[in-house]
């Protein structure tokens, strides 16, 4: 099985670069955001055959009681706010009849994976940082929620190209008013890469 590790930034997978190269595992750095991710990944797939996209990165978590640095498997991811504003009410793209905003992981059948907590993702162009908007998120999403700027784009491309796809994220911060002093990026990156190497070793052994 040909695996492509996909990340938005080099920093997110830098601790695993030697591991990836030593094991002949290809990786792609797409750049930050849905547009860059969709373009870079689609361009790559036009030139290379891939069986499984393994999208990894860090993200913000809505649940303030959760421990930062934990790794989650993202089961579904949503292009947040894709639709129309109807006098203050949100009309999703599905109701407009122009597409969909929610995409799901697509693992190979019967693939066994390491057991980590599961979460729902939202993919945004602007990360949340205003109290009123965060309150609305808390009212809208009852399940464990993780925010990124790329996840749904990878799921979207995988669906279009009919390629297996998984996404894992380590939480570096809470979804709250911007507070860099409280971020745990180093811990998130460390834990993400420990997990990534374990996961790839697990997959190479056939799950």
What features would you describe in this structure?
The protein is α/β, with parallel strands linked by helices. The protein has one domain: 3-Layer(aba) Sandwich (Rossmann fold). 33% of the residues lie in helices and 29% in strands. It has seven helices and ten strands. It has a five-stranded mixed barrel. Strands 5-6 form a two-stranded antiparallel sheet. A hairpin with a 2-residue loop joins strand 5 and strand 6. Helix 3 packs parallel to helix 6. The longest helix is centred in the C-terminal third of the chain and has 20 residues. The chain is globular and about 55 Å long. The model has no long low-confidence stretch (mean pLDDT 95).
The share of residues in extended strands comes to 25-35%
Estimated radius of gyration = 17 Å
The N- and C-terminal alpha carbons lie at a distance of 12 Å
According to CATH, the homologous superfamily is: Nucleoside phosphorylase domain
The CATH architecture is 3-Layer(aba) Sandwich
Order of helices and strands: EHHEHEEEEHEEHEHEH
Number of strands: 10
Unreliable stretches:
none
CATH class: Alpha Beta
What shape does the CA trace take?
A: globular
Helix vs. strand class: alpha/beta
Mean pLDDT: 95
Structure annotation, total helices: 7
* Helical amount: 25-40%
Salient structural properties:
single chain, Rossmann fold, 5-stranded mixed barrel, 7 helices, 10 strands
């Amino acid at each position: 099985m040909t695996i492509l590790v996909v990340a938005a930034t080099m920093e997110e997978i830098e601790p695993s670069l030697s591991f990836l190269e030593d094991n002949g595992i290809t990786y792609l750095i797409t750049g930050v955001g849905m547009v860059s991710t969709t373009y870079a990944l689609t361009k790559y797939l036009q030139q290379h055959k891939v069986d499984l996209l393994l999208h990894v990165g860090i993200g913000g978590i809505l649940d303030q009681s959760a421990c930062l640095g934990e790794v989650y498997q993202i089961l579904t991811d949503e292009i947040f706010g894709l639709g129309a504003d109807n006098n203050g009410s949100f009309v999703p793209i599905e109701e407009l009849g122009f597409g969909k905003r929610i995409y799901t992981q697509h693992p190979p059948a019967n693939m066994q994976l390491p057991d980590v907590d599961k979460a729902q993702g939202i993919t945004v162009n602007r990360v949340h940082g205003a109290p009123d908007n965060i309150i609305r998120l808390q009212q809208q999403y009852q399940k464990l929620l993780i925010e990124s700027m790329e996840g749904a784009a990878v799921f979207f491309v995988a669906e279009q190209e009919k390629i297996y796809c998984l996404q894992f994220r380590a939480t570096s911060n809470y979804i709250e008013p911007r507070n860099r002093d409280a971020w745990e990026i180093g811990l998130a990156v460390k834990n993400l890469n420990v997990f990534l190497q374990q996961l790839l070793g697990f997959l190479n052994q056939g799950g």
